[in-house]
TrEMBL record, chain A:
Species in which this protein is naturally found: Bradyrhizobium huanghuaihaiense
Entries under PANTHER family matching the protein: OXIDOREDUCTASE WITH IRON-SULFUR SUBUNIT
Domain 2Fe-2S ferredoxin-type residues, every copy: 10-86
Name of the protein in its database record: 2-furoyl-CoA dehydrogenase 2Fe-2S iron sulfur subunit
Gene3D superfamilies reported in the protein's UniProt record: 3.10.20.30, [2Fe-2S]-binding domain (1.10.150.120)
MF-aspect GO terms: 2 iron, 2 sulfur cluster binding; metal ion binding; oxidoreductase activity
Entries under InterPro entries matching the protein: 2Fe-2S-bd, 2Fe-2S-bd_dom_sf, 2Fe-2S_ferredoxin-like_sf, 2Fe-2S_ferredoxin-type, 2Fe2S_fd_BS, Beta-grasp_dom_sf, Diverse_Oxidoreductases
The keyword Iron-sulfur appears for this protein: yes
Pfam families, per database record: Fer2, Fer2_2
Classification of source organism: Bacteria, Pseudomonadati, Pseudomonadota, Alphaproteobacteria, Hyphomicrobiales
Automatic annotation (TrEMBL), chain B:
Coiled-coil parts of chain: none
Keyword Phosphoprotein found: no
Organism placement in taxonomy: Bacteria, Pseudomonadati, Pseudomonadota, Alphaproteobacteria, Hyphomicrobiales
Residues annotated as domain Aldehyde oxidase/xanthine dehydrogenase a/b hammerhead: 32-143
SUPFAM superfamilies xref list: Bet v1-like, CO dehydrogenase molybdoprotein N-domain-like, Molybdenum cofactor-binding domain
UniProt keyword Oxidoreductase present: yes
InterPro entries: Ald_Oxase/Xan_DH_a/b, Ald_Oxase/Xan_DH_a/b_sf, Ald_Oxase/xanthine_DH-like, AldOxase/xan_DH_MoCoBD1, AldOxase/xan_DH_MoCoBD2, AldOxase/xan_DH_Mopterin-bd_sf, CO_DH_gsu, START-like_dom_sf
Keywords: Molybdenum, Oxidoreductase
Residues covered by region (Disordered): 811-835
MF GO annotations: iron ion binding; oxidoreductase activity
Name of this protein: Xanthine dehydrogenase molybdenum binding subunit apoprotein
């Protein structure tokens, strides 16, 4: 493993939402700061800087990850997915995002990116979740605006729609 | 789980857009990572970044600040201390008449943990933080006081000489004839309340970017400030510039506020001063520890409330005694939390006689400010708990007592004893509907059933009047009538909105409402679309504010639930004025009377002959392209700014009656809770909340506000409290210590509505966003009191507190396992133990007093200096969990009894905090040629480590002491430490260090 020098900037390269990116970071730079300030991917937000609020959640190599508890240097060579990568195109929302809008599942939208990442990741593996499972999953996120229940409804709506779409396309 | 709301119904023509739950225009960007929050926006090249060094002490004199090493660090542009800031600013105004100053940074004394002491400005944030650690501040601690009643007790440490006895204000009020009512009444009930400190803690923290133009001496500031813009005058005054030289802008998006982001304003002054001093733009983003420790919180309050009561439960008079704790400084707009509810001290009830004593005190805690509910939770907790107590005392049903006292349906507009003019409502009807639709009978049956099985189940009720649209004059009720006359009148609540038509006839709306997620852009597009016969998507709304260019006034901003009632209505007025002119132009084009004009489906048409029509955009553009062909009386249609202030918001009268708010919604809540008999965890079985907020503009958003307020109130009731140790150390500096509700705690409330339009607002709407923060904490408390059959309930209802209520105080541990008792909020570390070391007491004694030996056995010790025979200094690096820091320890020896005993006393300070400790060590021969050491210690810590590492300290201390003894034993040539560890010096140094820093 390469030994990084504390007072130097080092190149960090990885795949962000399917595209190669590269920028320099000191070893102590957090992934959240790297994404936001070095790469301009400001959709990932920082709420608590100690891994409790969940706003900074991203997916690293298929694993949900708190980017505020991860160093940028740690993801060198990895595949990252962030909120900027979940819509099918810039002017269209995905099924989960649409469900959020339909259910008024966001107000200020600051915590939303992390919640979307957790749900996007979870629904990909668990297409038929119960309300209890969604509540359990999202207990690692703090939202101060919505009181959560519209978010849970949006997640269940999205799961139902994704399942029915899949059934239609399978048929 | 979610209840259906009236769903959007796009495409259907004539139904108004207002009242429909259309999808929000804000959401697409927010859902795609394209929001534009303050830290998402770029800054000018060369912008510097600030970090703030904060006080670890709750109360101390600053003896010296040595920033030389920090200034020498590469990349550091400046280190500002109080003196530097004072050179370019003046004190913030204080809300009462007193010879007291209020600075955004400590001058020569700190008064709360987290108070800014220095600002470091550097090329990037990390460098600024590196430099901040090199600043050496020498403090001389003073006694601290954190309890509001303790603060006004004789002999309490005084925070400000201008507030003798820590009392910032003491006013008494009398309405009607309360003395007679109390004397005549058959019953008197009284309750003592301690309402805790909490905060709505938005997930986005504060942010400021400031620059200064030295040529014009003008400041430009971008901040996620939320208003009220009366604060603009406070900031400009502090920066010593006229208002037109303070350009304050807000970013397009703000990540929640709930009142809290009003509190960013002292930092605007601080960062603007930094920009002026460095001559460069400066940016500062608050971190979470800073936010929890030192942003702003709701007030905590000690209240005694008494009621004179008739035999049937009718309340004849109230006697309020409120002691409001505003923290270390009385920052604008405080003491507004106390006076916001002044017109509403009788709640939803018809009570003619009221006596009030309002005291405002300062304590060594973070200054307070706006927070959702603003004064309501404190007032209603006392009033609605008392109503429940009256019911129990008179053996009545609480709901019957509520009903007996409600203001009559025919009484509106109703003037309360203290001066509020309640605009509209039918409280009896609302209660009746809630009881039926919310199935109260079913809940009662459930309670009976649960109790029959021996379970702890209770039902609580609350009736609450929710004020909205604050009177800019209510705060002057803190002054006497004579002082008010001298100060000049303050009243009203100017709202503003601008509607513009561009050269292709598309519509733009601008308001000074500064939303933080409430969807103002969507609702305004509905309101204006209805006026012009267009669709919401045709209307583009901008809610950013720029005080250099936009229409605004002191009442502008997002607070006091003023959007729906005031701002949306003002947008309607502006649009109607433009529409009126467009109608006149269209009338001349269509050859009809203006009165015959109607706006519908994108056209301006004749009512009588709808085929005679012209496209809206075509008429709308005429003012740009062909002003010469407009009818003479039409004027321009390019832009219209409307200002609206309700005439009902008059200043306090000479008898101190104040109509503190314009609108008054009504809320009636009831709930069933069950308490686990083993864990004493409170589970909400069902929560019913009935709202009458007047006309509903967007049902989905109204319910969103109710759910959000409910969830925050649930946190306040069950989980949240800003914890302070007796010495003022802040104990809840992480979201693992300050617990917020998550998906696993928050159920869906059952929401019901009734719509009694306000006659005082353009759209009939009233505020709705704060009500559950007022009603829900006390409703849950009433239910818990009912479940447990107890009279006194203090929030938050954490299991440990309920356990004390139900089971009494924790019993002492069994004999033989004596451990020093730990009190709530106590961060003292105490312990004792023994160790055995090879070598005679004389030898061990010599080792303990030898710097070289100590250096080698104290964990993490870099060096030990012997100042005198009895005074040592040491540099140690110590880590607790993830928090490692360097500390400088000073230890002195007392009561030396060589080689038998010594007392050590000392302290340590570091970037992460401070500590002090005292220990006694005795040495005795162990009978095998070795020495038996017995020690005891008592240490206290403060600063960052206390805030974020409190849970880890006891364990970490024992580990460190163990390491010391092991090392000492090894040094002495064998033997071993038993019982964990001792140290004296190490103890002190280490312990002292514990409290310290990280990195």
């Amino acid at each position: 493993m390469t030994r990084l020098k504390a007072d130097r900037r080092h190149a960090v390269r990885f795949s962000l939402n399917g595209k190669p990116v590269e920028a320099e970071a000191e070893p102590r730079m957090l992934l959240s700061d790297f994404l936001r300030h070095q790469l301009g991917a400001t959709g990932t937000h920082v709420g608590c800087e100690h891994g409790v609020c969940g706003a900074c959640t991203v997916v690293v190599d298929g694993m949900l990850t708190r980017s505020c508890l991860t160093l940028a240097a740690q993801v060198d060579g990895c595949e990252l997915k962030t909120v900027e990568g979940i819509a099918p195109s810039a002017d269209r929302l995905g099924v989960l995002q649409q469900a959020f809008r339909r259910n008024h599942a966001l107000q200020c939208g600051f915590c939303t990116a992390g919640i979307l990442m957790s749900l996007d990741h979870y629904l990909g593996k668990n297409p038929n979740p119960t309300e209890a499972e969604i509540r359990d999953l999202l207990s690692g996120h703090i939202c101060r605006c919505t009181g959560y229940t519209p978010i849970i409804q949006a997640a269940l709506d999205a799961a139902a729609e994704l399942t029915s779409k899949k059934e239609t396309s399978d048929a | 789980m979610l209840q259906a709301v009236k769903s959007a119904n796009p495409g259907h023509g004539d139904e108004p857009w207002v009242g429909r739950s259309i999808e929000r225009v804000e959401d697409a960007a927010l859902l795609s990572g394209r929001g534009r929050f303050i830290d998402d926006l770029g800054v000018a090249p060369g912008t510097l970044h600030a970090t703030i060094l904060r006080s670890p002490h709750a109360h101390a004199d600053i003896l010296s600040i040595d920033a030389e090493a920090a200034k020498r660090l590469p990349g550091v542009a400046a280190v500002l201390t109080g003196a530097d800031v004072k050179a370019v600013t003046t004190s913030l105004v204080v809300g009462v008449k007193a010879p007291v100053e209020c600075w955004p940074i400590a001058m020569d004394r700190v008064r709360y943990v987290g108070e800014p002491v220095a600002v470091v400005v550097a090329t990037d944030r990390a460098r600024a933080e590196d430099a901040a650690e090199l600043i050496n501040v020498e403090y001389r601690p003073r006694g601290a006081v954190v309890d509001p009643l303790g603060a006004i007790a004789a002999g309490a440490p005084v925070l400000h000489d201008g507030f003798p006895g820590n009392l910032a204000s003491d006013r008494s009020f009398r309405y009607g004839d309360p003395e007679k009512a109390f004397a005549d009444a058959p019953h008197r009930f009284s309750i003592d309340i301690r309402y805790p400190r909490n905060s709505c803690t938005p997930i986005e923290t504060y942010g400021v970017v400031a620059s200064h133009d030295a040529g014009e001496d003008a400041y430009e500031v971008l901040a996620n400030f939320q208003g009220p813009f009366s604060i603009h005058t406070v900031i400009a005054r502090a920066l010593k510039v006229p208002g037109n030289r303070l350009r304050l802008r807000t970013p397009p998006d703000s990540g929640g506020s709930f009142g809290v982001k009003q509190g960013v304003f002292p930092y605007i002054v601080l960062i603007a001063a930094a920009a002026r001093i460095t001559g460069r733009p400066v940016k500062w983003i608050e971190d979470r520890l800073e936010h929890l420790t030192a942003s702003v919180s709701a007030t905590n309050r000690a209240t005694t409330l008494a009621a004179a009561v008739a035999a049937d439960g009718k309340i004849l008079a109230l006697d309020w005694d409120q002691v409001e704790d505003c923290g270390a400084h009385l920052r604008a707009p405080e003491p507004a939390t106390l006076y916001r509810m002044h017109g509403n001290l009788t709640g939803a009830y018809d009570i003619s006689h009221v006596k009030v004593r309002n005291r405002v005190v300062v304590t060594n805690k973070t200054p307070t400010g706006l927070n959702r509910g603003f004064g309501g939770p404190q007032v209603y907790f006392a009033l609605e708990r008392l109503v429940h107590r009256i019911a129990i005392g008179l053996d009545l049903d609480p709901l019957d007592v509520i009903r007996r006292n409600l203001i009559g349906a025919g009484a509106f507009p109703y003037r309360t004893a203290t001066g509020a003019l309640l605009d509209s409502g039918n409280y009896q009807e609302a209660v009746a509907r809630a009881v039926e639709q919310g199935r109260l009978a079913e809940l009662k049956a459930k309670r009976d059933e649960a109790r029959a099985e021996g379970r702890l189940y209770g039902i609580g009720f609350t009736a609450v009047v929710e004020p909205s649209v604050s009177n800019m004059g209510y705060i002057t009720t803190v002054l006497t009538a004579a002082e008010r006359r001298k100060a000049g009148p303050k009243n009203g609540a100017q709202a503003t909105a601008t509607v513009g038509l561009d050269p292709v006839g598309s519509v733009t709306v601008h308001v000074a409402s500064v939303p933080q997620g409430q969807g103002h852009r969507t609702v305004l597009s509905q309101v204006v679309a209805d006026v012009f016969g267009l669709e919401p998507k045709d209307i583009r709304v901008n809610t950013e504010i720029d005080t250099a260019k936009d229409a605004w006034s002191i009442a502008s901003g997002n607070y006091a639930s003023r959007f729906a009632a005031a701002v949306a209505g003002t947008a309607k007025i502006a649009a109607e004025r433009v529409a009126d002119r467009v109608a006149r132009i269209a009338a001349s084009q269509l050859n009809v009377e203006a009165a015959d004009i109607v706006f519908a489906k994108g056209f301006v048409a004749s009512k009588h002959n709808p085929e005679n029509r012209i496209a809206f955009s075509r008429v709308a553009a005429l003012s740009h392209w062909s002003p010469g062909s407009l009818p003479d009386d039409a004027g321009q249609t390019i832009r219209e700014t409307a200002f609206w202030t309700p005439p009902e918001l008059t200043p306090p009268d000479d008898d101190d009656r104040i109509n503190s708010s314009l609108c008054h919604g009504f809320i009636f809540d009831f709930c069933g809770v069950e308490i686990d008999p083993t864990t004493l965890e409170t589970r909400i079985d069902r929560y019913v909340t009935m709202h009458d907020c007047g006309t509903i503009l967007h049902p989905g958003m109204v319910n969103g506000q109710i759910r959000g307020g409910f969830a925050q109130a649930l946190g306040a009731a069950l989980l949240e409290e800003y914890g302070y140790a007796e010495d003022g150390s802040f104990l809840t500096g992480t979201l693992a210590d300050y617990l917020l509700p998550t998906t696993t705690e928050v159920p869906e409330p059952e929401i019901f509505h009734m719509e009694t339009p306000s006659p005082f607002t353009p759209l009939g709407a009233k505020g709705v966003g704060e009500g559950n923060c007022m009603s829900t904490p006390v409703c849950l408390a009433n239910a818990v009191a009912d479940a447990l059959g107890v009279a006194d309930i203090t929030l938050p209802l954490v299991p440990a507190r309920l356990a004390e209520l139900v089971r009494g105080a924790e019993p002492p541990p069994p004999a033989g396992a004596a451990v020093a008792p730990v009190r709530e909020g106590d961060r003292r570390l105490r312990g004792e133990g023994q160790a055995t070391v090879k070598g005679a007491p004389e030898q061990v004694w010599a080792m303990l007093l030898d710097p070289a030996t100590l250096q080698s056995v104290i964990p993490g010790c870099q060096r030990v200096d012997k100042v005198t025979d009895r005074h040592f200094r040491a540099d140690v690096t110590l880590g607790i969990g993830p928090v490692t820091g360097r500390y400088r320890a000073d230890v002195e020896l007392f009561d030396l009894d060589p080689p038998r005993a010594v007392t050590l006393r000392g302290g340590a300070t570091g970037a992460l905090g401070f500590g002090s400790a005292e220990g006694r060590i005795t040495l005795a021969p162990d009978g095998n040629g070795g020495t038996k050491l017995t020690y005891s210690y008592d240490a206290s810590i403060g600063g960052k480590v206390a805030s974020i590492g409190g849970r880890l300290l006891d364990g970490a201390t024992r580990v460190i002491i163990g390491q010391f003894f092991t090392a000492l034993a090894r040094k002495a040539g064998g033997g071993g430490a038993e019982g964990g560890g001792f140290s004296l010096f190490a103890l002190l140094a280490k312990m002292a260090s514990l409290f310290g820093g990280r990195r």
